[in-house]
Every structure is written in structure tokens, then in C-alpha cells.
Amino acid sequence: MSLILLIEQVLNGLQFGVTLFLMAAGLTLVFGVMGLINLAHGSLFMVGAFAAAAVAGATGSFVLALGAALAAAAAAGALVEVLVIRRLYARDHLDQVLATFALILIFSEGTRWVFGSFPLYLNIPAALSGPISLPGGIEYSTYRLFLIGVGIAVAIGLGLLITRSRLGIQIRAGESDREMIAALGIDISRLYTIVFALGAALAGLAGALVGAIQSVQVGMGEPVLILAFVVIVIGGIGSIKGALVGAVLVGLTDTLGKLLLPGMFALFMPASSAATVGSALASMAIYILMAAVLIWRPTGLFGVRA
Amino acid sequence: MNPVLETRGITKNFGAVEASRGISLDLRPGEIHALIGPNGAGKSTLIQQIAGKLRPDAGSVHLLGEDVTALGVAERARAGLGRTFQVSALAMEDTVLQNAVLGALGARGGRVPLFRGALHDADLRATAEAALDRVDLLDSADMQTAALSHGQRRQLEVAVALTLKPRAFVMDEPMAGLGAEGSARLTRFLDGLRDEAPILMVEHDMDAVFALADRISVLVYGQLIATGTRDEIRANPDVRAAYLGEDA
Amino acid sequence: MIPERWLNAALTLGLLAVPLWALWADEPFTITLATKVAILALAGVGLNIALGIGGLVSLGHAAFFGVGGYAMGILAHHAQTFQPMIWGLEGTKSMPIIWLTALVSSGLAALAIGALTLRTSGVYFIMITLAFGQMFYYFAISWPAYGGEDGLSIYVRNGFPGLNTLDPIQFFAIAFTALMLALFLHARLKASPFGLALNAARQSPDRVETVGLSPFRLRLLAFVISGAITGLAGALFADLNRFVSPTMFSWQLSGELIVFLLIGGVARLYGPVVGAAVFIFLEHHLGDISEFWQIGLGVLLLLIVLFARGGLIGLVAGEKR
After folding, report:
1. Which of A5, A268, B164, C261 keeps 20 to 30 A from B203, CA to CA?
2. Chains near A (3 or more Cβ pairs under 8 Å)
3. What's the ipTM?
4. Where are the bilayer-spanning segments (chain A) (predicted)?
5. Which residues constitute the domain of residue C259?
6. Which residues of chain C have pLDDT under 50?
């Protein structure tokens, strides 16, 4: 196997990882601040992708499409928070699971109603299409490199937001002590709506960005949601840093597992069955990683709460 | 006489906070030993290490002469440690009798049959009802636990511990939240209980402490500053400084 | 308010009466629907032991449903192609052997998943069970020996000694009997010392530990029993459709099983029966009106979660205890 292929796959793994980070960051924030498990986060990912595809189809502008994705997902998030989610904060996890599962049904079937069952396509903008030459003679997709850049930029921005801004101080206060922020006179229900909408916007952004490299269709959000859960379990609930590290780990494990495992099994197996066993195991690799982290640190790499 | 329960040099740190600093204390047969100290002194941390919920960083816990430091809560309970909680930890949706039967079940050594009805097991039921009778809750056996008054819940806590026929009791603030009448009644009850098994209790209610305790230990900032009889503790200058000095 | 006991009796009779009426009216499809209700309710009864008594919100029970389904699929596939499995073992078309295999294999899967996930609690437990369910899904897709994404078709329904399983009403009788046995098991478990302790561990794990019992072990046993029953339902479901595919492992199915419990009433003995019946009824009647019937289902669920937490049984029989 060539080094170039390996580097390319590492980059693909990073790209996959940062996409997962965009999903996981919102989930982990919402859990950390409000103690809510939100299964409908994948629906917000889908909303972002559909909004982007619709706007790009109408205007031809990728920038407008991204803006629409952010706006639509944030608006959907805020709306859902006000109508449904805020009634769930005081409820147990079972009620949260059921209500957000119901939201998935409503979002998915609603989207199918509006856009039909056929997938939409979102084109990569001309400026980012085609390959780019990296040092070492590697040709790599400009768009995927752009995704990695966006992911890193969001991670840095989110880090600054949490540690430096007023909103970030309130969020951290909310994570450690709910009564405290109410006592400080902060409008807690407004804070919750903002945090939820922020998480939703990140999910919508992820949906739009990924929508350009795969088809935009109903049900696209949930597989990503479940992977984001794996990321959070690995990174630790409530930790943005954990979400970033977990996301990159999951992205790399998945991509490199698919690349390397069949070859590794070929060392002591006939090639045909090695390919079968290798690819079957590669599909389980991230879950095995999760299980290993669980045995080693049940609260995740950066988690504190049980 | 050999102590029933003993800690030797227990140390526990939470980051920079030294919650337990080399605490050694013992519980002797037939006595009530009260653990007092200001808020934040580390009483709960110590109780949790004795019960097995927290593992000490250093030092050891001994029950009936056996080193139980490595055992968990359930194993220590089976070894003869009966514990009550500061905030009632009962199955609130279940009836009073069901809570007591749970204790009786534990007393049988952890076997949990899957098919025979729990309330139809005469043996379990007899143990449970006897314990409820002793704390005057037998008439309320079929009530839902959530419907009990605060004082009755405390009584039920004690009853569940009784079903285990423990060799030592560890009670975390048994009087907490009880009115004058309730604490007087519980005081009389605990007074008679010490002959069955000695009691180590954390308590803020000084009337109860001085009425009941054979010995008192004073914990301040994770350190045991004195252990002695009521009179010794009353006269101890360190204790006076720690308590009165803070109040003054 | 109707006592829950009478309601349960009425539900049992209703579930019997519908297919008997359909037999008389010569509507075999209705018998098949009733069979589907009985099988999905069986899967829900399995989940209800972990979730209702034990408070374990497993969002990965489709894993056990799927393992049970594939136990049937693999055994029957080898029998119909006359190829031995590993170690020269023959496949089989005999339901009792298939059921036993399904119970054991899904129970073992539950043991492995439970041993890992029950070290955690709360939201971690939910996310991890969901993730492990998904792992089985992807594994089934990427393992080509048994059809991969396309699944396996079984040409003829498996047999049961003395019965003609191809006759819809006889197959219904099998599913109904399995459901009744599982409900009986649930009721006995709940009243037993094990159920008492498991139920207490849901409400106050500290208490259970303090009387010398291990919440982890109680929960693990509950999870294994729960997974095995859901696995048995998977084997029957596969036999109903004469088909298994990775969709049996899908997270939607895990969600739907929880939804059955919610519709009927969480921790109610007959909760899954009511839930499965309502779900299948809605699927077929709302589904005729609009292909987007799941929007209606979603709204109904939201209303139940927000305003009627006792589920439908709670509305009719009143609050618990």
C-alpha cells in the first residue's frame, strides 16, 4: 500500500471526524447544560441539508445555501425547543427519548411530504471542486480539505465562545449549577433556547456540508446521530474537547479500519475470506473502540459525570 | 474487648481537598459512638468509606476483625454492616412491607428466587413484619412508602437495617428532620438497640448525641481531633476551640 | 375506572376474538395482522422486563430481535440448501430447535452487551445500547454469507410437530401461546424476590446495595431474560415473513418497541400488547389514508408523553397503585 493512499485516507478520516464533531458538539452542549438527550438532533442535520439543497437549487449560490442551512436548522431548533423540548427538561430520560423519537417521525415524514421521497443533490461549488495538490505530490479533494478547515475553525470558534464570551460563562455556569445561574438573574429559558438553537445550527451546517458529497435524503441524519453518540461516549458527556478528540478518533478508526483490516487479515487468511472478515470487522471497529474506552474509562476520556 | 468496626489511618483526597486525614476510630460492642463535627468536616466522606461506597486512598477498614477495605457496599452489608441514610433511600413506589421484605431478602445472603412470590414467602414475610413491628410500622405495612410521613420513613430506614440482623449499625443523621417527639421516640429506640449491635452514628442533634452516646468523636477539617466520653468531650479544649471558636 | 385485571382479561379475549372472527369471515390477512401484533407484543414484553421493572431504557433491543431472526434464518437457510454449517452441523426447519437457538443466542448477545453497558447508567446507557444495536446492523450488512443487505428468504415456513404452521390460524395460535407464556413469566418475575429487588434497584440502587444485593447482577439477569424473549419474538417474526434482513436490527425498530410500551403504558403488564395492537392498527388504517401517517403517529406520541404518561391503560385503568 502506498504512503500516498494512507495519507489520503487519514485526511478522509479527519474530514469524517470533523463532521461528526459538528454533530457531537451540539449534542454534548445540550446534554451538559440542560441534561437532555435529543434523538432529533439528526433531524436538524437533515433540515440543514434540505434547506441548503433547496436554496442552492433556486439561487445557485453555495454561500447562500450554507447560510440557509444555518438559519433553517437554528430556527427549527428554536421552534422545537419552545414548543416541545422545554417541557422535557424536568422529565426522565425515557420521556426525552420518546418525545424526541416522535419528533424524528414528524420531521422525517414532514420532509418527505414537502420534498418527496427522491433524494436531492447539492453540488460542490466550482471554486472548491476538483483536486488540489498537497506537498509530497498528493492530489486531494479541495472540498474535503475545505470541510476539514471549516471543522477546525468551528472547533476553535466554539472553544473561544465557551471560554471567553459572556454566553460561554453562562453556559459553563449552567453546566455546573443550574440554580446558580437562575440566582444570578440570567434568563434561563432564553439561555436554553439559545444553546439549543446553537447546537441545531451546528448540526444544520454539518448536514449542508455533507450534503454536497452524498445525496440529501430523508433518514440521512440518524446514522450520523448514532455515530455522534459513539463520539460522546468516547469523549465524555458535556465536554467539547472530548467531542473533538472522540470525533477525530472515530473518524480515523472507521476510515483506517476499512483500509487496513482486510490487508491485516490477508496475512494469515486466504485473500477472499480476509476481505470478508476484514470488512465486516471494519464495520464494527468504532463500536469496538467504544467498548474498549468504556471498559477503561466508563465516563469517557474527558468526562466527569457518571 | 475487640472492636466490632474499626478504621485505621483512613485518608481520602479529592484533588487538593483532604477530606479524610489519617482517621482511626473504633466501635466497641454494646456502645453508641457518635461522630460530630461542623459542616464540611468530612463526616459523610468517612461514612461512605466505612460503608464501602468510597475507597480510601490509604488506610483500612475492619469489620469483626476482618479487613474489608477491598469489599464493596453489598459485600460489607452481607458481612454484617447495617446502614441507614441521611436522606431516605427507600423504594418510594413500593409498599412499606415490600421495602422491609427487600431487607429480609438481603439477610438471606443474596439469593433472589425468580418465581416464588416474594410476599408469599412466609420466612421473608415474618422477618420483615417483625422488624416493622419493632419500629411501630406494622399497621402501615400496606401503605405506599411515598405516603409515609418523614418520621415514618426514618423508622422504615431503621426497620430495613434491622431485618439484616447486622453486627454493627452505621447511621447517617438518623434524627435529621424529626420533630421533638419523633426524635425523642427514636432516641429511646436506639438506646435499647445498642445491646443488639453497636451503633456508629453521625448526628447534628446534640441533645440526642449527649443523651445516647457512650463515646463521641469530633471531626474537623478531615481530622479526628478528639475521642472520648461525653464529659471528656465537653471539657476538651480543642473541641471547645473548634466549636465555640467558630461560633464566636 | 376499570380494574387493570379485568382490562387485561378483556384484551386477551379481544386478541383471540379478532383472528377467530377473521377465520369465520375468511379474512386470512387479518389473522396475519393479529399474528404480527402478538409477535411484536412479545418483543415488547421482553423489553418491558428490562425497561418496565428494571428501568433500563434500552434503545438497542432490535439487536436481540435481529439475532433471533437470524438464528431462524441461518438454520433454515442451511436446511433448505442442504449445506452443513460449521463443524458439520446440519440446519433445521424445526421450530422448537430454532426457538431454543434464538433464545440462547440472543440471551448471550444480551449478556455481552449488558456486561458492557450496565457499567454505565442514565443517558450513557441509552446511547451505548443504541450504538451496539447499530453495530449489529452494520455487521449484518457487511457479512455476505447470509445475504448481506438483501437478507435471506426462507421458502417454506418452519414446522412444529403436530401443527400445520402454513395455516394462518395455527401459526397465530403458536404466537399467541408464546405471548401468553411471556406475560405469565413477566407477572411471576415481577412478584418474585428477584422482581422486588430489581424494581427497588430502579428506584434506589443505594438501598439495594445496602441490603447486600448487587444492582449490576440483578440488572444483567433482567437484561438477559429480556433480550432472550425479544430474540424469540425475532425468530417468530422472521417465520411470519419467511424473510430476515438487516432491517430487523434497525434503530427504528428499537424505538418502536419503546413506543409500544409508551402507548400502552410503561411497566404495565399488558402495555406492549396494547401498544403493538394500536401501532399495527394505525399503520394499516392511517396508512390507507395517507402515506405520511407517521406524522400522525409522531403527534400522538408527543401528546401521550406530554399529557398522558400512564399510556392508554393508564387512561382506562387509572394511575398505578
Report:
1. B164
2. C
3. 0.90
4. 12-32, 39-56, 62-85, 97-122, 142-162, 191-213, 225-252, 264-296
5. 4-317
6. 321
Chain C neighbours, 3+ Cβ pairs < 8 A: A, B
Neighboring chain C residues of B72 at a CB cutoff of 8 Å: 209, 214
Is the pTM of the predicted complex or chain greater than 0.90? Answer: yes
**How far off is chain B from C266, nearest CA to CA, in Å?**
14
The larger pLDDT score, comparing residue B79 to residue C144, is at: B79
Residue C144 contacts A where some CB pair is shorter than 8 Å: yes
Q: How far apart are CA C64 and CA C109, in angstroms?
A: 7
Which cell numbers hold the place of A176?
A: 455546573
Residues of B whose CB is below 8 A from C203:
90-94
Measured between beta carbons, the chain A residues lying within 8 angstroms of C306 are 84, 87, 99
B58 vs C: CB within 8 A: no
* CA–CA distance, A69 with A18 (Å, rounded to integer): 17
Distance CA B76, CA B110 (A): 12
Smallest Cα distance from A206 to chain C, Å = 20
Nearest by CB to A94, from C57, C142, C144: name it: C57
Stated as kind and residue range, the H or E segment containing B6 is strand B5-14
* Grid cell of C45 as nine digits: 414484553
Tallying the residues shown for chain A, one arrives at: 306
Q: Backbone phi, then psi, for B170, in 5-degree steps?
A: -120, 115
Which residues, numbered 175 to 214 in chain B, qualify as contacts with chain C under a Cβ-Cβ cut-off of 8 Å?
none
Tally of structural domains, chain C: 1
Q: Where are the domains of chain A?
A: 3-218
Domains and CATH numbers, chain B: 1-73+166-248 (3.40.50.300), 81-164 (3.40.50.300)
One-character DSSP codes across chain B: ---SEEEEEEEEEETTEEEEEEEEEEE-TT-EEEEE--TTSSHHHHHHHHHTSS--SEEEEEETTEE-TT--HHHHHHTTEEEE-SS----TTSBHHHHHHHHHHHHTTS---SSS-GGG-HHHHHHHHHHHHHTT-GGGTTSBGGGS-HHHHHHHHHHHHHHT--SEEEEE-TTTT--HHHHHHHHHHHHHHTTTS-EEEE---HHHHHHH-SEEEEEETTEEEEEE-HHHHHH-HHHHHHHHHHH-
Could C305 and A298 be called an inter-chain contact, meaning their C-beta atoms sit closer than 8 Å? no
Q: In chain B, which residues have their Cβ closer than 8 Å to the Cβ of C212? A: 74-75, 77-78, 106-107, 109-110, 164
Chains A and B touch (3+ CB pairs under 8 A): no
The CA distance from C189 to the nearest CA of chain B, in Å, is 6
Kindly calculate the radius of gyration of chain B based on its CA atoms and give it in whole angstroms. 18
- Grid cell digits, residue A22: 459538528
Nearest by CB to C204, from B83, B90, B161: name it: B90
How do residues A91-147 score in pLDDT, each as one tens digit?
899 999 999 999 999 999 999 999 988 888 888 887 888 888 888 778 888 889 999
CB C259 within 8 A of CB A98: yes
State yes or no: pLDDT of B130 exceeds 80: yes
pLDDT classification of A302: cutoffs 50, 70, 90: confident
Query: Model confidence over A35-55: pLDDT tens digits?
Result: 899 999 999 999 999 999 999
- Min distance B209 CA to chain C CA atoms (Å): 24
Please state the separation of Cα A25 from the chain's center in Å.
7
- Between CA A192 and CA A35 the distance in angstroms is 11
